[in-house]
Amino acid sequence: xxxxxxxxxxxxxxxxxxxxxxxxxxxxxxxxxxxxxxxxxxxxxxxxxxxxxxxxxxxxxxxxxxxxxxxxxxxxxxxxxxxxxxxxxxxxxxxxxxxxxxxxxxxxxxxxxxxxxxxxxxxxxxxxxxxxxxxxxxxxxxxxxxxxxxxxxxxxxxxxxxxxxxxxxxxxxxxxxxxxxxxxxxxxxxxxxxxxxxxxxxxxxxxxxxxxxxxx
Length: 216
Description:
Layout lengths: L15 H22 L2 H8 L3 H7 L3 H13 L10 H16 L2 H14 L3 H29 L8 H25 L6 H15 L15
């Protein structure tokens, strides 16, 4: 198993241009070679850098692929299409389009599989991809609250729980649809999914207290 010790950040300052070239080369390699065929030597050659340059930035292939895929998801933007439903559909379609790209599909499936036996890698996926993209939920919910489409939530803990639930439902559904079922997340599907999601968002959560326990 690869070492998960963070790569050293001492020495010369990092070059943004070199980082961009390395991440682009990683995605290119995923398309041409697949997960199992991708090596750091190949990435270094494609990026025109020494292999040691990669190891100064990333401790191994898994971490490098996480960052290369995370950069793709950073392309996601919240559209302003006039309503919460239309905004959600827009993000869902963007997300599905990214997952349909071979570098995203191959890279994400690879690191998720590896993370099942590597807690540090799972945490890197969570912080680099999942937590960063929750910005879309926060922005979309705030916009919907300003429009009066969703009620405000004064309790920070309840608000954070709602954000987690929305993200899990939306991201989980699109990933399952595109990567597990292998079916298109097209406009018709996005519209139907959004309709079901919003029914849940506009209805108060049920009492989740287990039977026999007192309600506080």
